[in-house]
Amino acid sequence: MRVRVDGEGPAAQERPDVVAVEEPLEVRVAGAPVVVTMRTPGDDDDLALGFLLTEGLLPGPAAVARTTACVDVDADGRPVVGSLELALADGVPAPDLEGRRTFGMTSACGVCGSASVDAVRARTGANLFRDDVVVDAPVLAALPDRLREAQRVFDRTGGLHAAGLATADGELLVVREDVGRHNAVDKVLGRAAREIGWPLRGHVLVVSGRASFELAQKAWMAGVPVLAAVSAPSSLAVQLAREAGMTLAGFVRPPTLNVYTGAQRVRTGA
């Protein structure tokens, strides 16, 4: 229930409301805990795979043989921390977590799990300079509206971020929502890795909020050459995109957008 207060209207009224769900998920690989993240339940397999791939902890989606979901309960029988156990395929070594910080419990963005910015750069290897995909400016500018149309849970709660993977022609292939914008991206990239392949060359990643350093890093790790954000990019995101050879667009709101790096991939009418 919520109490709706209007300072200029009638007395406050109590009404039912719908809020976005946020719950913890622990990801374990080969029996070892890797991360606990606060997320919106759903697509947990994709979230875990996308996270592990974009953190450079797995070489590709085929490294995972199977996943097993577990839900613990407290003394009253209520679910507490859910966990997802990933078993590795034969011959795949366990992720090397030495030298990394413990991955924290958060739904916020940041350079999560990275000891330093240099460590993030060091483990990101896709060469985006070789990706010559071109996207028409009107197609790129229209993607946020198409993403918004696909946000079914946002319509009810107003409390979720969204991410989507699109072709250069503007076809949205995967769309996911989550309380954390980086979780939404991981869910998208994890599903795309299973269905399309890895790396994801020739595609566009569109996000509903700002373009942070972490989202640029995830796009680079996935081999995605174009990152488009509804809001502003951060200075580190611009710097990383420039180093990676990525096209980074911000304030993408039809009919306009700002291109901060890699403008050669955005075809205009001029």
Characterise the protein shown here.
With 270 residues, this protein is of the alpha/beta class. It contains 7 helices and 14 strands. It has a 6-stranded mixed sheet. The chain has a 4-stranded mixed sheet with strand order 4-3-6-5, with helices on one face. β3 and β4 (32-39) form a beta hairpin. The model has no long low-confidence stretch (mean pLDDT 85).
Largest beta sheet: what is the strand line-up?
A: 9-8-10-11-12-13
**Shape type:** flat
Rounded to an integer in angstroms, the radius of gyration calculated over CA atoms is 19 Å
How much helical structure, as a percent, in the residues? Answer: 25-40%
For this entry, what is the oligomeric state of its chains? Answer: single chain
String of helices and strands = EEEEHEEHEHHEEHEHEHEEE
Structural class: alpha/beta
Q: Uncertain spans, ≥5 residues at pLDDT below 50? A: none
Keywords:
alpha/beta; 7 helices; 26% helix; flat; 270 residues
Q: Concise description?
A:
This protein has helices spanning 44-54, 117-122, 137-149, 152-157, 181-195, 213-222, 235-244, and strands at residues 2-4, 13-15, 23-29, 32-39, 64-73, 79-88, 135-136, 161-166, 172-178, 204-207, 226-229, 247-253, 256-261, 266-267.
